[in-house]
Every structure is written in structure tokens, then in C-alpha cells.
Amino acid sequence: MNQTAITQQEIDELHGILLKALVEIRRVCEAHDLTYFLYCGTLLGCIRHGGFIPWDNDIDLTMPLDDYKRFLKIAPKELSPGYELQHYGNNRDYPRLFARVCIDGTTAIRMDYIERKIHQGICIDIYPMIGTRDTRKGIERQQAAMRFARGARSLNCRVRYEGAKDWKTRIWKMIPEFLRNAAAETAIRWAYLSPTSTERVCSVDTSYFFPKYRSAQWKDSILKPFEGELFRIPKEYDALLTVMYGDYMKLPPESKRVLKFADEGVDIVDIHRDYREYRDEILGKRKSH
């Protein structure tokens, strides 16, 4: 199975695997009174399709910062076998500032990450929702801190796995790793404000950081069916989806109704085989040459 030759049956199987993982995350959150919300395309699919967007290949969740931090501590011990929590705090090779719950027995490999000791299976993204500064200058500084933290994590991985090929990486390599990590962590701590203490909030994800939402829009939740299961969504989902997508009930043109694996840089996708098998084969061939 790969992103250029995938059948509807395989998409349905992929959705089933993701739904099972989502139910598992819900179980952990409910057992420990943690707040979570369906987010982005998953929230859109819930409202517009009653489940997955037919051409979607992932699930997105968000949690208020305090609940997110608790989840990072609780999930490694509470998740059932077959699921692995991955975030920058528990894996030095993981470059992102948000967490993922990864599914064993599956593959979603980026070849530029093939040497990194990270889980490269199908996963669910979990974004912390944080507060934003209340002045333009403060927001600009917060944006700069986020860019620095993201860049620092990325450069750390390039130093270890791709060598010092450009001037930024060469300069970064001159700084001891413990100082690099301390600088990134300081930037994160400064930028990560509690969403309960600010008027505007934003998620820490792969998009540009700015005060997208009012914090009050995330205060209350309701239960909505998603593929026959009930999950929490923000009560003000209409206003939030309008911010995210505009006229969100309007379907995109057919040319846009495609899986996003290629856009995400994923080169090998397999829902029936573990990524470690592919990685061992690829790295083994490289060594033999």
C-alpha cells in the first residue's frame, strides 16, 4: 500500500485503525478527567460528514496546555500495548513541538527521517492549546520564540543525522548539545502560556502561530458522533470552523479530495506492516553498498 495506489478498501481500513486509536485516547482522557477536543480536519469531518472526511488520512486533537502536560505524563503508562506516545520531551530525535500517539504494526515513513530513532507509523496528532500575549509586540516575540524552538529541534536532528551541510547547521553544531536543548526549552517555557489566563489562544501545530481564537470559544464542550462513537468537540464549533475553513460546509473541488501523505512528505505507507521492518531493510541495503 502506498499513497499513489490506494484503494477505497485500504482507506476504510486506515480509518478503522485511526478510530480505534482515537477511542483508546478517549479512554485515557476520561479515566483521568483530561479535556480534549476533536480539531482541524477531524472536527470538520465530525460536523460535515459525521466522521472522517472521506479523503482524510489522519486525526487531529487539541488539549488545553495543563491537560496536555498531564497527558504526556499519564499516557506512557496508561495507553494499551500497540500505542506509543512520542513528543520532544521523551525522544531527542523527534523534531516537532506537538505530541503524537503512534500505532505499532503500521508504516508512514519519510525517507529524510529514515535514520532517526523515532516511531514512523500511522499516528494521531495532539496539539497543545496555549494562550497568546495581549500586545502586538508580545505576540511577535512569542512567534519568534516558537520559530526558534522549532528551528532548534530541527537543527539538532540535522546535526546528528544529516551532517553540517549548511552554515546554520555548522554554527549550531559548535554549541554543546545541552546548551542547545536548554535554549530551546527556555523558549518553549516562555512561549507556552496557559490558555485560561489569556483572552486569545492558538494551538501549537505546524501552521503559523498567531491568536486565531478567543479562549472563551474553547471553554465548553459537547458530545458529537464521529463514526458512531461520541467524542468531545467545542460547543462553539461553528465559529471555530469558520475561522479555520471559512464556508466549511462547502466541499472542495474533486482535484483537492486526495490523501495528504504526499503533501506531508511521507514516502512509504503501509497499514499492515511495521515501519521497523522497512527501516531495517532500507538501512541494511545502504550499509551493503
Question: How would the global form be characterised?
Answer: globular
Number of helical regions: 8
CATH structural architecture of the largest domain: 2-Layer Sandwich
Helix content: 40-55%
What is the makeup of the main sheet? 7 strands, mixed
Give, in order, the helices and strands.
HEHEHEEEEHHHEEEEHEH
How many beta strands in the DSSP annotation? 11
**Uncertain segments of ≥5 residues (pLDDT<50)?**
none
**Proportion of beta-strand residues:** 15-25%
* CATH fold-level name of the largest domain: Beta Polymerase, domain 2
Q: Specify the CATH class of the largest domain.
A: Alpha Beta
Structural class: alpha+beta
- Structurally, how many domains make up the residues? 2
Mean pLDDT, all residues = 93
The first-to-last residue Cα distance is 27 Å
Q: What is the gyration radius calculated from CA atoms?
A: 19 Å
Describe this structure in words.
By secondary structure, the chain is of the alpha+beta class. The protein has 2 domains: 8-131 and 197-288, Beta Polymerase, domain 2; 133-192, no CATH class. It has 8 helices and 11 strands. Strands 1, 2, 3, 4, 6, 7 and 8 form a 7-stranded mixed β-sheet that branches. The radius of gyration is 19 Å and the shape is globular. The model has no long low-confidence stretch (mean pLDDT 93).
